[in-house]
């Protein structure tokens, strides 16, 4: 707008540059008065908008610079520090790492990052969304356990809500119904007290997501959807739903978000709702829980924002197409589509279905260096890939992840799909192509056997997953285009197409589909933290070495001995994390790292969220005076201040050392069984001891 008005004004000025000043003034005061006024107005608006943009840019830069701690940028492979430097009092930790439960900086071990944390821009992270899940005591070992084995480990902050305090499920909050509740047995009264608790417990999260214990959540799709909204506004997002005509509709005429399919509340919306929820909790006592929430939100003048990705039932309860679907969904329509919005949730699932959805979404892969990667195909779930095979004289349709459907007739006939293959078996990674280096994947969907002996397939099968032997569709997913479309008389390579369909043998239908394959992502234990104080996350945060997941954290410590080790406190936000034995090494010959404390971390086991703090992992070190090279020994400061400032000469195997210490870089790698294991670098002074003398004695 500003450019247009400025150019228009400049043309007017240039056209009159050769006129006398008096004539130019008359023209300005006359017929061109409106042009000048409009130009000035447009300039003012454009200038205000430009100033606003500059302020945003400046503020974002200021925030980015203030968020990056002014700390050492030394990497894990830094030069070995001197013992005198390490024996000095610990540095004051960055404010970014202090927690309410941490001791004063002078008493705490100090952690800092080897590089500043990366900025995420407008992308939404799992740390921005808190999850509340409704459950019951008799469903913990079935539904909740299936969630914990599937999508729930991707969530950072989760709280379970039940009618009783569940020792085996933490964190759980026991809720009580209001005095005049009419549906005590159904649990409809749990919504309001659960939302009030979430509001108080997570005051800084941008979103609160609420669902049932038989709901599957595609985390990446949920975050992508929520990230498209401004979290600073009042939002109540979910599956458009209405009360049943023969039940609540007689009393309340509103649209609301289905609770089972899950709904999201922005922070401002929940803040407003918190002021009226106590009254709503005592007033609305005879409707379903999600209707009560919808009515309370509706009372504030906010309406439900319908999103197509939420589903009240399992995927096989809908008729899928590629038309984009429509609103409202739910019991008002049996059609669904993943064309415009990939699925976000499914509801009313059995534990086996929760496991199935996870199995067909992720391909996990352990790299040679031990890191765990995952390919997330969630954005393609139930998307349609279709075409016509002249050889088979069949229309073929793949609903990604779940079924391969066929229909007879000619190429111009409208297909009448039949679900020939509707039993998803697996999605796995194949070896990379030697010529292109691109990875490819195999998605196998079998026929549902009519009998336990299979369906009569007599071809020898090497794939044990297809037992009992039965017919199946093997879909190869290639990450490169296939020439499948005629554009301007020429075949053009395209992605997102069904490339080819062939019958490999009498039991296998082979499809080739081209996709913009997802990039592999490191699998992090986002529920796991490690800190220098109970409850802190200044060493490992959300399964990554703080503060960014790619570089090691360096801890500066004085002399580390078995009498004064470095204590690292683990914590788990919810669920559990299986562990393998941790490893620790020293970079100086003759020196060793000593692990102790937490058995789960030092020897392997399972870290679980509990009511009390988990025991810390301890790290110490020593150096054999007979084996340490003279060049690596640190000379003690004059007057022996090293020994005085630090601990007395350290002991190993019960024998006193001869004094002195060696500057050593220790490398600690935590063993996480199902996740990428974080690595921490510790710069420390290790005491000189005489282990050989101890062995002789």
Plain-language structure description:
There is one protein chain. By secondary structure, this protein is of the alpha+beta class. The protein is 21% helix and 30% strand. Strand 18 (394-399) and strand 19 (403-407) form a beta hairpin. Helix 5 runs parallel beside helix 10 and helix 6 runs antiparallel to helix 8. The chain is globular. The model is unreliable at 1-37, 54-110, 112-122 and 635-658 (pLDDT under 50).
Summarize the entry for a quick read.
The protein is built from 13 helices and 41 strands. It has 697 residues and is an alpha+beta fold.
Strand content bin: 25-35%
What percent of the residues sit in helical stretches (DSSP H or I)?
Answer: 10-25%
Total DSSP E strands: 41
Model regions low in confidence, pLDDT < 50 over at least 5 residues: 1-37, 54-110, 112-122, 635-658
Shape verdict: globular
The termini sit apart by 89 Å
Work out the helix count: 13
Q: What radius of gyration results from the CA coordinates?
A: 32 Å
Computed structural class:
alpha+beta
Let me know the average pLDDT: 77
The main β sheet shows up as:
10 strands, mixed
Descriptors:
alpha+beta, 697 residues, ten-stranded mixed beta sheet, 21% helix, 41 strands, seven-stranded mixed beta sheet, 13 helices, globular, disordered N terminus
